[in-house]
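Methods, example record. To illustrate the input and output format used throughout this study, we show the complete record for Sialate O-acetylesterase. The sequence lines were provided to the predictor; the line carrying C-alpha cells was produced by it.
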Amino acid sequence: MKRILFSLFLFLASIVVFADGGFTVADVFTDHMVLQRNANVKIWGEAADGSQVEVLFEGHSRKSKAVDGKWMVTLRTGEAGGPYKLEVINGNNKVSFRDVFVGDVWLAGGQSNMEFALRRVKDAKAEIDLADYPQIRYYKVPRKYYPEHEVPETSWKTCTPETAPEFAAVAYYFAKNLHKDLNIPIGIIQLPVGGTTVEAWTSRKLLLSDKDFRPIIERYDSIADAYQSGEYEKIYDRYIKSLAEYNKLSAEKKQYIGKPTEPMGKWNFRRPVGLSETMLNVVSPYTLKGFIFYQGESNTARGAQYRKLFPAMIKEWRASWGQGDIPFLFVQLPRFETKTRYWNELREAQYLTSLHVKNTGMAVAFDQGNPKDIHPIVKDTVGWRLAQIALSKVYGKKIVYQGPEFRKKTKTGDGSLLLEFANAGTGIIAKDGSSSLSGFMVAGKDGQFYPAEAVIVDNNRVRVKSNQVNDPVDVRYLWVNSGYMNFFNKEGFPALPFRTDKYRLETEGVCVNPEPMIPQLDLFLFIGQSNMAGRGYITDNYKGSIKDVYLLTLNGDMEPARNPLNKYSTIRKQIDLQGVGPAYSFAKAIADKTKHKLGLVVNARGGSSINSWLKGAKDDYYGEALSRIRQAMKYGTLKAIIWHQGEADSRNPEAYMAKLQKLVADLREDLGDTKLPVIVGEIAEWRVNGTSDAFNKMLRTVPRHIPYSYCVSSQELVPLINENDPHFSADSQIILGRRYAEAAYKACYFKE
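The corresponding predicted structure is encoded as:
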C-alpha cells in the first residue's frame, strides 16, 4: 500500500511504503534494490514524532528517532554482495525488503535521449533477448508533474528480457559494461524526462541567485501568475499530455491565455525548478556512486548561459546528495541538422564544464547522432563511452577513455598551422581510411573561416591549411550543428570539437528561450499504413502549402504544411512513394471551416500490421507516435487521432477489434485524455483479396465498441492503379480526407 507525500523543498517528498500508525519508508526502497557499497547509506521515511526507528542489515543495527515526523538512519555497508534482507522496525511495525544487493548505484538524468528505452534501439530484440543480468537493476522514478499528481507504484527491477525493454538504453549499456569489467552489482536510478531544460532540474533559489538566470524564473512567474485557480493549473498540466478540457476553460478565461511564450502552466513539467521539486527530491539523498547525464537539446538557444547554468546545476545536485564532489559524467550533444539552434555553442559549454568542474567527464557523441533525427536509435556506443570514462576516472583503470583533445597550435611559416593533441592514445587516424581529416576550418585576422585541408603528421599532430587563407591564425573543428566526422584515435574514440578563437557567441545575452513563432495550434495525429502515408500522385493541384496549417518536422519545429505530409514520419519506409494522403484535404477542410490554425503530426508506415502498432511491440511504432505528438504539444492542444490501417490485417477481422480497443485505450491513457476522439476509416471496398467486405463491416461497428470513436466510409472511392491495388487515388484521398474532416468537426468543434 502506498500514498503520496509532498514537500516542496525537502528531499523527503516521495511515495512511501507504510505500515500502521503513519510509519513509512520512502518509496525508492523496495525489494531487488541495490545499495551503494562501502558507504554510509541513508535510509529514511516518516514515523510518529519521537518514536524510535531501527534498521537491521546483515547483522548490524542502526537506530534513530523521528523528529517532526521524519526519520533517517545512516547504515554502513561493506563490499559488494547479496542477496540480503533489510528490515525497518518502528514499534510493532516492520517492513522487510528482500533480494537486496550491495554494489554501485548511478543516477541517470537528462531528457529524451537518456529516457530513450532499450526497446526502441536498433536491433532491440537481439539485445533484449540476451539481457539476463541478475545483478543489474533499475528503478524508474515516476513522472510527477505537480504536488498532488498521483503517480503509479514503482519498484526496483532486475534486468531480464521481460524488464529490459523499459530500461533507459544509454544507462543499460553503461551498466552492462561496468558490470562486465567490475563484476559487481550495478543499480541505475532512472530520472530523465524528455523535452526538459536544465533549469527544470534546478531550484528556485539557484535561479534567483544569478542575474543571468533570473530572467528564466521571472518570465515563468509572469506566465504562472495568470493561472490562478488550482483547477486551471491541473487542466494546464493535462494540456502537456493532450488536454481535452483546455478549450472549454480557455474560452472562459481568454484573458489568461493570449499567446503564451511557451506552454508552461504553473505545473508544466518543463517549468523552471519543476522536476527538481517533484522528482529529483524523491530520490535525494539515496546514496550513489555518481551521476550520468544526457541533456542539452532544449537549451541549444542559450549555449552561452549554459556555461554557467550547467555547472551550477551539478553543484546543486551534489549538495543535495551531501556526498561531496561525487562523479558527474555526461554526454556531449551529437550532431543534428537544424537551422534554428546553436548546438555547437552548447557543445562548447559542455566541454568547458568538463574542464573546469572537478570530477566530471564528458563522452563525445558527435558521430553517434543522426542528422535527420533528434533521437538516434543507436545508443550502445554512447553507453560504452560513458562506461570507459567511469572505469578510468572513477575506478582507476589505466585505459584510454576519450579521443584526441586540442592542446596547442603553431604557425609553420608556409601558410599552415600545426595542431597538437592530447589523448591521442596509440595514434590518431582517419577512421574511414582517407588521406585527410574532415571538419576543419581556418581563419586569418579578418575572422572569416574557410574549409581547410587537414593532414595527419604523426601520432598526435595534424597540419591544417586553406588556399583561401594565406596567414591563418585560428582554427575550428566541427564548429557546426552537424557534419561528417572521421578524426579518431586508434582506440576508437572521436576527437573533441573545438575552436581556438574567442569571437562572440551567437547566444550571448540570451537568457530565455526565444518565443515560438507558431501560434497555438489544434493538433491532429495521423497514424496507420500506406493509405495514411499517402500514395496518390502529387499533381499541381496538390502542391503548395496549406493556409494556416503546419507540419511537425523531425527536429520538433513546425513548418508550413505541404505534400507529401508523411515525409517526416520517423517510421516511414525509405522509398520514394510518399504522396497525397487524407491529411491534406482534412487539414484544408478543418482550417477553412473553423478558422483555426492546425498542426499535423503524420507518422505512418506502409505495410504495417496493427500488431506493430500495439504498445510494447518490437517495432515500437506506438512509441514513435507518442514521442512525436508529445513533441508537438508545445505548440497546441491535441484534438483527435486519425487512424487508417487494416489492409495488412483484413483477413482476420474477428481479432482486430480487441487489438484496436487496446491501442486506443493505451494512447488515451498515455496522452492523459480518456475521451480523446479517435476516427477510423474503411479500407478499399474493392476486393483486393476478397476480404474488404467483412473487414469494413467490422470497422463500422467501432463506434459501438470504443467510446468517443467514429468511422468514415470508403464507398465510391477508386484505386490508384487497378482493383489489385489497395491504395486510393489522389482524388479519392481528397474525398476520404474530407470525410475524416466531417467526423472530426462533429467530434471536436460541433459545440463551439
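Annotations derived from this record:
The chain is about 25% helix and 25% strand.
The longest helix spans residues 303-321.
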